[in-house]
Design brief:
The protein is an alpha+beta fold. It is 62% helix and 14% strand. Helix 3 links the parallel strand 1 and strand 2. The radius of gyration is 14 Å and the shape is globular.
Length: 71
């Protein structure tokens, strides 16, 4: 973890936090095995942000369609 933290540019990290805090909606998309991590992230982000939207999708086709409609 320390090695990873050493690789992160603190200004860019703060910029990412600012984007999350100032966003109207935060979408967390997950596919298959990443669903648990998406729910975990959504749960903890809900303490600091407006309600994040977590979408756990069943197939990659649905995932790509959902990404296009959101983005």
């Amino acid at each position: 973890i320390e090695k990873t933290l050493g690789l992160i540019d603190s200004k860019e990290f703060q910029k990412a936090i600012d984007y999350l805090v100032n966003a109207k909606t935060v979408y967390i998309l997950a596919l298959r095995s990443s669903a648990a991590l998406a729910n975990f992230m959504g749960f903890y982000l809900s303490f600091a942000l407006r309600t994040p939207s977590v979408a756990v999708l069943k197939s990659s086709t649905v995932f790509s369609r959902h990404c296009v409609s959101v983005g």
